């Protein structure tokens, strides 16, 4: 006999606990289960006390507590744990019940699980959940995909708990993304863009601090101002806040006490790897992943810092003059960095949507790219003002080849271009690493050129491996015996 809970959630780490509280706050009765049942009791006796919850100590009890069609969501570590829970759930399910995976799951696993679960007569949803702990509690961005027949049964609940945007704060950041693994793929691209955004902001920080000489208090003011304009976003906002926090033990700014070694959970790497599989140049997320990798080589970097030389101002009069000029006109330098950051951010999103387009075609998902932008406008980590512009672009041109070609972004890139180039040049002259800035500029310059040196690359491949080539003046595929035709080198 089914119970009367509207929703069930497995996994009571902070994200799961907060999401369960969010669901209950919207008027739904929630069943909860955790492998470590002490966590169930702690929630029921703590934050959920007096609320519409049912705590369960077994999978069977958990399933039977929910009304049919059951809506059972997992928020557990991606990988084998998800398959194990599905295996534990299925003996107690009935046809039409819905299993939901809200973890950071690789899309290919969701493709497989959707087919396997549907073959047993149940529905499966793989949904991206973005917004961190606060978003889970107050309203995340949700990116559901999987069994389309399940969407009408969860739509009202999902959209009720999601973040809201729009003039009347009534547009939910949640809608159906597509079949099978589409939802988790869109979430992965979101995370890849997040990697790029964070690295770009860090490079802007280093430029302003090390070249511009700004203090943390001044950095707070700069990021506060940036958050009122084109760069307005959650990541700019929290970066501003970070510069205001003092270390309680020393009264110094806490950010200066944090070891410069970045962690990663892998979703940025997934996007980069899948971009390579698709043959699309998602270069900025790849650069951001590698930047985290070199940050982890802290001990090696410390050793190298006392051995490898950088540019010496005294030996280079032009460099010394450039440094003096930058130091003397701080406002111009800040604007240079801002424009470079904005242009790089446009490139980052452009690459993300190019990859989504390629994946949608590869997997027959029929993604709505404007809708994807809408899902990211609130609740999630990359929420930003200019996502409205991205939605407008794809609403106006659903088959837009690249965001940079849309008039708004084309004009923005043209306006930012002089500053964009200047900041990369200045960083190069001064020996300040800006891998994401420079990668973004290289992509822009590569994309806008009608001819690249790949003709020479094809000649090289044909020379050493007979890989053939095409010509600009004839149809067909050609091979040349380069050794026979080459000019003989002089001895």
Automatic annotation (TrEMBL):
Pathway: Carbohydrate degradation; pentose phosphate pathway; D-ribulose 5-phosphate from D-glucose 6-phosphate (oxidative stage): step 3/3. It comes from the Bacteria. The keyword NADP applies. Residues 183-483 form the 6-phosphogluconate dehydrogenase C-terminal domain. Belongs to the 6-phosphogluconate dehydrogenase family. GO terms for molecular function: NADP binding; phosphogluconate dehydrogenase (decarboxylating) activity. It catalyses: 6-phospho-D-gluconate + NADP(+) = D-ribulose 5-phosphate + CO2 + NADPH. It comes from Rosistilla carotiformis. NADP(+) binds at residues 11-16, 34-36, 76-78, 104. The active site is at residues 187, 194. GO terms for biological process: D-gluconate metabolic process; pentose-phosphate shunt. Catalyzes the oxidative decarboxylation of 6-phosphogluconate to ribulose 5-phosphate and CO(2), with concomitant reduction of NADP to NADPH. Homodimer. This is 6-phosphogluconate dehydrogenase, decarboxylating. It is an enzyme of class 1 (oxidoreductase). Signal peptide: none annotated. Coiled coil: none annotated. Substrate binds at residues 104, 130-132, 190-191, 195, 265, 292, 461, 467. Its EC number is 1.1.1.44. Keywords: Gluconate utilization, NADP, Oxidoreductase, Pentose shunt.
